[in-house]
Design goal:
Blueprint (H helix, E strand, L loop, with lengths): L6 H19 L3 H8 L3 H8 L7 H11 L3 H5 L15 H19 L3 H8 L3 H9 L6 H11 L3 H4 L4
Helix pairs in contact: 7-8
Length: about 160
């Protein structure tokens, strides 16, 4: 996924917000790594604004700091939100694919049109539906815009 337009901002917002949370909570890279199960090198890359975490790491970091995933990636500016009814990580993908399928049916949308709307290859979309792959965070952000849902909702956190 190559960021386009405003999407470039989300990566820098994520990096800045993660830094702010770590400083305000007095959490080192080492401690965040130990508490979330994420490698320190990955955390360093996030802090340097090189990439987003995988969806499961994003959820773990949001849970650790008790903030929404929407706040972390810059989809909203409210730092602390009530986030409930979190589904287990293993259920996130099937739940997301079911929601996406229902959305497509409601809108009469084909996979071809969905791929165009999300600016992804059809093969990427097929991996989501058939091969058990999960969209990258940037793809999830695009889905929030298209479907009109929060990232936390797509990830089963509210």
């Amino acid at each position: 996924f190559a960021p386009r337009g405003k999407e470039r901002m989300y990566l820098s917002v994520f990096s800045a917000r993660l830094k702010d949370l770590m400083v305000s909570e007095g959490v080192s890279r080492h401690k965040l790594s130990a508490e979330t199960g994420v490698q320190r090198k990955s955390i360093a890359n996030w802090l340097d604004g090189l990439n987003f975490p995988r969806y499961d790491a994003l959820i773990n970091v949001a849970d650790y700091f008790k903030v929404s995933t929407d706040y972390l990636v810059g989809l909203c500016d409210i730092m602390r939100e009530k986030v409930e009814l979190r589904c287990p990580i293993a259920e996130v993908r099937p739940r997301l694919i079911a929601k996406l399928g229902a959305f497509m049916a409601e809108k009469g949308m084909t996979k071809y049109r969905l791929a165009k709307e999300l600016n992804v290859e059809q093969s990427t979309l097929e991996r989501w539906f058939k091969a058990g792959a999960m969209p990258e965070v940037l793809g999830l952000i695009r889905l929030t815009k298209l479907m009109g849902e929060s990232l936390d909702s797509l990830l089963g956190r509210e």
